[in-house]
Structures are given as structure tokens and as C-alpha cells.
């Protein structure tokens, strides 16, 4: 040991920690783990200082200015069997922990979560939001996360926290008690439920989730298209109206293509005939059509891609039932 190192040890009499954003805890750097008798310990608001002796918590200090001697280090003094004079330096590990709220953190589902929706059946949902937490149970946090590390930051624990959040989401949404459209419409209530769901996992690490917000809920694009299609059908009321709606939407697209409306083929021409029935004078209902002719026209729409095979089969079955 150099003379400068030796001298620096003799004059270490002011101990404090000025934390930086994102810091959670540090092991205070002490030469040979020695602290001078009478040293001044400053613990700021939102901090706690823990003295450890051979891996065990000896003494704890809350916010304030503390003089380190036998009077306010009773447990450490007893463990080390010092005399009452307490003139020599004592050895200990000193850790600082911040109990301030760590805010503005983001969470999200890396992969869609499959949930059983009571209205639509199995759905794959993506969710994103923000949360905050603080250290609440320092001994548990120190034992499970800090250990013997020199320093621990929010970035170090975030992967574990996000994993716990994803699991809580799967549990909280998997029951299917609330339909997706209701979840998306009441994100405040969902945020409160998920806050309760993530609490046990956080508390197991000595942490408390202070806030939890769901900011976005979404479905895969193909599922959203399917739901939009279903919504259109429900608004229109029945397949006949849906077919007319599909045909009317297809006409401008076909007209813009090479060959105009004629270019979309016989199937689209049949669809156009149905679309024209929507333009009856004075809104009068079109006369009933021969079921076989209607089936032929529907087949043309299916060939043109205006309706699906399932929709064609369902309508054909209904028309044939009328003939019977």
C-alpha cells in the first residue's frame, strides 16, 4: 500500500452518495473496508444506508446526518466485540439504496399474447404502456438482486420486470372475462387490474409497482381486417346487402383498371347487375329473382373475389332450401 492510500484511509470521515438517474444501489467504496471512528454519514431523503458484517445486516440508517460510533452502531459494535473506547477503525460493508420512485419506464409484448375472447374466440393481442416502481423491502431486494455487486441500476433489472409484466398480462387477460372491444374502450380499468396482477412478482424482489398504464391495445393486421369485415356485415344486416356493398366498392377499382368495368369479367358483370338493383326508382324493392340465376351471379362474385367460398356456400344452401 502506498503512503497516499494509507493517508486517504485516515481521513475518510464524510460518507455520502449522490445518485444519478437510474441508480438503484451501490456498495460504497472503502479502502480495506475500513471506516474511521466518528466518521460522518449523510443519508439523503429517499435513501437508506445498510451496514453489513460478514454478509449479515448489522445496522440501518434513514435520512439524516449520523456520527458513526458505538452509540449509533450497536449491532455492528456487538458483532465485532469492540471495546467502549472504539478508537480504531472498524471494518464493514456499507451499501446505499434509493427508495425513490423510478418513473417513465416502458413495457410491451415482444410477441402477441393469445387470449380467449368471449365474443371472438382466441385472439392474439399486442399491448404497450408505461410503469414505475420503487424499492420497498431493502433486505429482500439486496438478497435477491443486489447480492455482492458494486452497483445496480434500473437498466439491470428491467429485463426481469418486463418478463414479469408479460406473464401477468397473459394471466390477467387469459381468462376472457372481458371482450377485447371492452378492454380497448376502458384502458383505465384494465391498467388497474394489471397493476394488481404484477404486484406479487415485483414484491418477490422487494419492489412495489407504483403505477401501471396500458397505452395501446392492438390485434394483428389480418385479424383486424377480419373483425372490420365482420363489423361491416353486421351493420349491413344480411348477406344480400353485404354482396351489394362489396360490388359497389369494387366498381370504382375496376373502372380505373385497363379495360374499365368490362375488364373484370363475367363475374363482376353479374355483380354489377346486383349493384344496379341498389339504384331502383324511389327505393322500391327489386322483384324476386330466380334462385338458380341468383346462385349463378353469386358464383360469379366468388370467382371475382368479391365474396368468399364460405359466404357463397352459405347463400347457395339458403337459396336451394327455398326451392325445396
Summarize the structure.
The protein has 324 residues and is an alpha+beta fold. It has helices at 3-10, 74-80, 138-146, 154-174, 180-185, 187-203, 221-236, 239-256, 265-277, 291-304, 309-323; strands at 14-15, 23-27, 34-35, 40-43, 47-53, 56-61, 64-67, 90-91, 93-98, 102-108, 113-117, 121-135, 151-153, 207-218.
Explain what you see:
It is built from 11 helices and 14 strands. With 324 residues, the protein is of the alpha+beta class. The protein has a 5-stranded antiparallel sheet with strand order 6-5-9-2-13, sandwiched between helices. It has helices at 3-10, 74-80, 138-146, 154-174, 180-185, 187-203, 221-236, 239-256, 265-277, 291-304, 309-323, and strands spanning 14-15, 23-27, 34-35, 40-43, 47-53, 56-61, 64-67, 90-91, 93-98, 102-108, 113-117, 121-135, 151-153, 207-218.
Strands in their spatial order, largest beta sheet? 6-5-9-2-13
Q: What is the number of E strands?
A: 14
What is the alpha-carbon Rg in Å?
A: 35 Å
The biggest sheet, with number of strands, parallel, antiparallel or mixed sense and barrel status, is: 5 strands, antiparallel
Output the number of helix runs.
11
The mean pLDDT is 76
What amount of the residues lies in strands? 15-25%
Helix proportion of residues, in percent? 40-55%
Q: In terms of per-residue confidence, which ranges show pLDDT below 50 for 5 or more consecutive residues?
A: 1-11, 261-272, 277-286
- The topology string of helices and strands comes to HEEEEEEEHEEEEEHEHHHEHHHHH
Structural class: alpha+beta
Overall form: rod-shaped
Distance between the termini: 105 Å
Amino acid at each position: 500500500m502506498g503512503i497516499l492510500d494509507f493517508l486517504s484511509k485516515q481521513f475518510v470521515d464524510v460518507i455520502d452518495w449522490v445518485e444519478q438517474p437510474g441508480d438503484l444501489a451501490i456498495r460504497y467504496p472503502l479502502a480495506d473496508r475500513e471506516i474511521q471512528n466518528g466518521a460522518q454519514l449523510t443519508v439523503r431523503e429517499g435513501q437508506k444506508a445498510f451496514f453489513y458484517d460478514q454478509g449479515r445486516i448489522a445496522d440501518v440508517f434513514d435520512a439524516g446526518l449520523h456520527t458513526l460510533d458505538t452509540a449509533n452502531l450497536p449491532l455492528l459494535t456487538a458483532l465485532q466485540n469492540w471495546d467502549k473506547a472504539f478508537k480504531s477503525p472498524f471494518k464493514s460493508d456499507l451499501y446505499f439504496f434509493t427508495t425513490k420512485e423510478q418513473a417513465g419506464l416502458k413495457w410491451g409484448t415482444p410477441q402477441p399474447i393469445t387470449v380467449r375472447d368471449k365474443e371472438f374466440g382466441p385472439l392474439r393481442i399486442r399491448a404497450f404502456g408505461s410503469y414505475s416502481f420503487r424499492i420497498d423491502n431493502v433486505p429482500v431486494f439486496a438478497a435477491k438482486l443486489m447480492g455482492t455487486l458494486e452497483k445496480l441500476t434500473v437498466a439491470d433489472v428491467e429485463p426481469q420486470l418486463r418478463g414479469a409484466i408479460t406473464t401477468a398480462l397473459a394471466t390477467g387477460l387469459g381468462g376472457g372475462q372481458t371482450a377485447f372491444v371492452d378492454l380497448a374502450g376502458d384502458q383505465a380499468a384494465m391498467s388497474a387490474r394489471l397493476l394488481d396482477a404484477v404486484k406479487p412478482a415485483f414484491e418477490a424482489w422487494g419492489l412495489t409497482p407504483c403505477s401501471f398504464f396500458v397505452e395501446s391495445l392492438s390485434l394483428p393486421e389480418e385479424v383486424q381486417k377480419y373483425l372490420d369485415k365482420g363489423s361491416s356485415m353486421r351493420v349491413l344486416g344480411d348477406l344480400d346487402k353485404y354482396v351489394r356493398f362489396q360490388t359497389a366498392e369494387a366498381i370504382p377499382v375496376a373502372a380505373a383498371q385497363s379495360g374499365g368495368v368490362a375488364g373484370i369479367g363475367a363475374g363482376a358483370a353479374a355483380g354489377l347487375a346486383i349493384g344496379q338493383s341498389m339504384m331502383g326508382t324511389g327505393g322500391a324493392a327489386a322483384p324476386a329473382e330466380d334462385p338458380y340465376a341468383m346462385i349463378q351471379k353469386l358464383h360469379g362474385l366468388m370467382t371475382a373475389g368479391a365474396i368468399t367460398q364460405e359466404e357463397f356456400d352459405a347463400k347457395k344452401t339458403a337459396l336451394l332450401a327455398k326451392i325445396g
